[in-house]
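Folded chain entry
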Amino acid sequence: MTGTNAINYYAPQIFKNLGLNGTTTGLFATGVYGIVKMVMCGLFLIFAADSLGRRKSLLWTSIAMGLSMMYVGLFVRIAPPQAGVPVSAAGYVALVCIYLFASFFQWGWGPVCWIYVSEIPTARLRGLNVSLAAATQWLFNLVIARAVPNMLVTMGRGGYGAFIAFSCFCLSMFFFVWFLVPETKGMALEKMDELFGVTELVKKMDDEERNSIASEKNASRAQEVEISPAK
């Protein structure tokens, strides 16, 4: 819901709405957008994924992405590009904001979510947790793929309302992270239960389950010893 896949899927149309004319120009701008995302993701994973931390990365990129999208939406609303008129200075700033948005996304909400969902659950639920995350991701990819063409047509001239809507989603994610996402940088996987406030009752149930499994294993070994032939 950040809007990143709206740009991924409909970049030529979006760049056209910002005043870039010509198929070749739109495709070139789209290619540059993809290169920016790839390079920035690599830089983040190599140099900053462990030093910045999960929470801090998500917090500052929420604001940065929201402001970038907000500028694009306000530009299209206040000074919409005109056919046959060269791109204005404010229009070039809007284009830069699209690339800045891609960069900010790759320093936060792009890779960090996948890191987070893989490290917070207990070991026996990790596969299920990542599977649910991937399913949710692709579900909303479908929603975006179906909704964005209509949003660009119906939400104001040039689709400025779509950009503002995505900006609001990005800004609201700041509060979600602030209140509900604790920092996990540098923490052992065994400490996640304490971090997320697992109750003593749950711990006791887990201990009883482990003790039960151990008892069953001991009983099985004892039975094997009893039925094994004497030498």
Q: What stands out?
A: The mean pLDDT is 85. The chain is about 75% helix and 0% strand.
